[in-house]
Specification:
It is a single chain. By secondary structure, the chain is an alpha+beta fold. It has a single domain, classed as Roll (Ubiquitin-like (UB roll)), CATH 3.10.20.30. It is built from two helices and five strands. Strands 2-1-5-3-4 form a five-stranded mixed beta sheet. The relative contact order is 0.29.
Length: about 100
């Protein structure tokens, strides 16, 4: 089974390795990442992040419901995602977007 690396630049959290197609809310906790999860369904915006593929591989784009939420929580930010909706398919860097 292949794994993917998640890095958390600008934090004290060490990178983690997760299985291919991992659902982040099932694997990330306050002990191993700066990402917090609220509703886990893409509605609350608690897990708003900026994500960047490390190796240049493309991430699966957000679906229509996530795009609608991102227009509210992070308008104009092309790297914004809801971590609860992201399926891990490549190595990534994640930065928590703090709400205003």
């Amino acid at each position: 089974m292949s794994t993917h690396r998640i890095e958390f630049p600008g934090t004290a959290f060490t990178p983690v390795e997760l299985p291919d197609l991992a659902s982040l809310p099932l694997h990330l906790t306050v002990l191993d990442s700066p990402v917090l999860f609220g509703c886990r369904s893409g509605l609350c915006g608690t897990c708003l992040i900026e994500v960047e593929a490390i190796a240049g591989d493309a991430l699966e784009p957000p679906d229509a419901a996530e795009r609608d939420a991102l227009e509210i929580y992070a308008p104009g930010n092309p790297r914004a995602r809801l971590a609860c909706q992201l399926t891990l398919s490549t190595d990534v860097r994640i930065r928590k977007i703090e709400s205003a």
